[in-house]
Amino acid sequence: MVDGDAPTLVVGLGNPGPKYEGNRHNIGFLVLDELAARVGGRFKAHKAGAEVLEGRLSGHRVVLLKPRSFMNLSGGPVVGTAKFFKAGPDRVVVVHDELDLPFGALRLKLGGGDNGHNGLRSITKSLGTKDYYRVRFGIDRPPGRMDPADYVLRDFGTTERKDLAFEIDRCADAVATLVAQGLEAAQNSFHAT
Asked: Where is the active site (predicted)?
C-alpha cells in the first residue's frame, strides 16, 4: 500500500441486522470482525453511516468499516468515511463475496469490474473510479438453477461452516499482508492456496 499520513480504509461488505449475519453475502462483515479482534477494539457508529474502528494492523494505521446500509447502498458510507479520514481510492480495500471462485479461494486485485456485485457497483459509482483494492472471498456458484440472488442471502452450508473460521482467518491474513507488504506480496502468498 502507499505510505503516507492517511489510513488504509478496510471495508467489509454485508447487510446489517441479525437476519443476514450468517449469509454468504456477509463474508466481508465476518472478516472485519476477525480484523477487529486483531486490532483490539470495538466498532463505533460514525456519522457517515458506518460502524468504524481505528487502529493498527501489522504496524499500519487502518480504519475498519462496515456500512450500516444495505449492500446495494454501500458506496455512500464508504465515500463519507473515506472523506472524513482523507483516504483516497488508492487507500481503500474492499472485502467481499465472489460467486466465481470456489469456497474459500482468495483473489486480490486492484480495480476491475463489479461482476454483477451490487456492493461493488455502488462503491465504484460513489468513488467515481474502479481503482480500489478488492479482496475476493470465494463462495462458489449456486447449485442447479438456484438464483444467485437467493444463494448469496443464504447461510453457509454445513460442510462450509466446518472450515469457515479457518478461511475467515486466512482472509484476514491476506488483508494484513496487503496493508503491510502491498498487492504483489499478498497475491504471491494467497493466490496459490
From this structure: 25
Predicted pLDDT of residue 5: 75
CB-CB contact of 133 with 96 (8 Å): no
Of the candidates 176, 81, 180, the one whose C-alpha atom is nearest the C-alpha of residue 127 is 81
Query: Which listed residue (25, 46, 96, 117) is catalytic?
Result: 25
Q: Would you tell me which CATH number, out of the four given (3.40.190.10, 3.40.50.1470, 3.30.470.20, 3.30.420.40), belongs to the domain 8-190? A: 3.40.50.1470
Give mean pLDDT, residues 31-52: 95
Can you say which residues are annotated as belonging to the binding site for tRNA? 20, 70, 72, 118
Q: Which residues pair with 107 in a beta bridge?
A: 136
> Is the confidence at residue 143, as pLDDT, over 70?
yes
Annotated binding site: 20, 70, 72, 118
pLDDT exceeds 80 at position 193: no
